[in-house]
UniProtKB/TrEMBL annotation:
This is DUF2802 domain-containing protein. Pfam families: DUF2802. It comes from Pseudohongiella spirulinae. Keywords: Coiled coil, Membrane, Transmembrane, Transmembrane helix. The chain crosses the membrane at residues 6-24.
Amino acid sequence: MMATMIIAGILATLCCVLIVMQFVQMRRLRELQASLAAASSRHESLLRKTGQAVGQLGQSLITLDQRVTQTQRRQQDLENKDSGSLTYAQASKLVQMGADPAELVKSCGLSEAEAKLVSLMAARGVGDGVRL
């Protein structure tokens, strides 16, 4: 009988220890779940911010690409204008051959003011060989 009581006492103690350990494990599990939820929330927030940043970066790249394309077009237009225009010296020679400013505007691509200036310079013998 004594042995039965000792065994019953040991079993009761073991049950109490197991119950306490169960409570400790449950508390630790709740702490881990809360920590996981907080980390998950931070992760989702970082993902949203990263997505927004990537979207803004993409939009910036699109804008830059459009500006580069526009700049390339402008450069090409300027190169085309330069390659198709005559030098001031050639315009001066046309004036010496009797061309008036209106003809210089048409044939050389000069503005009216430039054509008048070339006519005046050619009449005075100034500016031969100068390029646009």
